[in-house]
Amino acid sequence: AVNRPPIWCPGCGDYGILEALKRALAGLGIPNEEVVVVSGIGCSSQLPHFLKTYGIHGIHGRAIPIATGVKIANPRLKVIVVGGDGDGYGIGLNHMIHAARRNVGITYVVSNNQVYGLTTGQMSPTTLRGVKTKTTPYGSIDEPVNPLALALAAGATFVARGFSGDVAHLTQIIDQALTHRGFALVDVLSPCVTFNKVNTYEWFRARVYKLEEAGHDPSDYWQAYKKAVEWPSLDPNGRIPIGVFYKNEEKPTYEEEIIKNLGVPPIEAGVAVNGKAVYGILQY
Ligand code: SF4
Ligand code: MG
Predict the structure, then answer these.
(1) Which fold does the domain 14-251 belong to in CATH?
(2) Cβ(254) to ligand 1 under 6 A?
(3) Where is each Pyruvate ferredoxin oxidoreductase beta subunit C-terminal domain found (predicted)?
């Protein structure tokens, strides 16, 4: 977190994500020193360098375990994970599932450009069927990952999708995610203008619609699930809902459960509690 200017390609969707994240943090008045932004590897994973907060530019697909450690150690910190679809829904997918089922209180913002951008345009886990990429010259034959449906099935307590071409709307979503107690997934449709010539800003603008304008009730789990599979699972050519799909503030968070066991957050407990090493209690 050195707060240097971004180095993304002009027009990259990641600029919209950075802007929305900055606006949401500023709007909530969260001090920089109470924020830790953790990332993996990829174009979007460079984001912690472009903020004044604390940050860890981690290893490929492992941002969530790093962030989980930070949040468990000191639950008072606002812990945000940022990364791409390759990093988070490919190599790191299982970490999202486990963070969701544990309800770790972190905000996970995924820049989903449906391609591997940093490595110059290979098919990613969210590439739609039929899309031609460097590694799918005849068009992808894979069923794309549906991150929202997976997160809901895993027990995530906040599930949303934004669009980096609508920064004001994305800011509102991130604002809600940051104020949510438990695990929050914000999948962001974020065009890679250099390597994805199919899923462009125009492509998304012609398809997205806002859940809150369609009478969606985010407290209804099954309604949320139906909306989550609307695209791309049911209709890859259909309209794409954006907004908050699901929100449940009732479930206890992982860090709350740990504090229940220790009496205090691990950072205050030191290396041992009642003669037992803290890491022993955290083992799973
Ligand atoms: Fe953004 Fe794509 Fe350029 Fe990476 S390669 S910075 S994802 S436009
Ligand atoms: Mg990507």
Answers:
(1) Rossmann fold (3.40.50)
(2) no
(3) 192-258
The answer, yes or no, to whether residue 203 has pLDDT greater than 90, is yes
Could you tell me the distance, in angstroms and rounded to a whole number, from the CA of residue 85 to the centre of ligand 2?
A: 5
Ligand 2 mean position to 274 CA, how many Å? 46
Give per-residue pLDDT as tens, 100-142: 999 999 999 999 999 999 999 999 999 999 999 999 999 999 9
pLDDT at 281: 42
Per DSSP bridges, beta strands 184-189 and 272-273 are: unpaired
Going from the C-alpha of 75 to that of each of 30, 95, 249, 266, the distances in angstroms are 14, 19, 17, 9
CA terminus-to-terminus distance, the chain: 31
Specify the pLDDT at position 283. Answer: 38
**What pLDDT is stored for residue 273 in this prediction?**
56
Report the nearest-CA residue for atom 1 of ligand 1.
12
230 lines ligand 1 (CB under 6 A): no
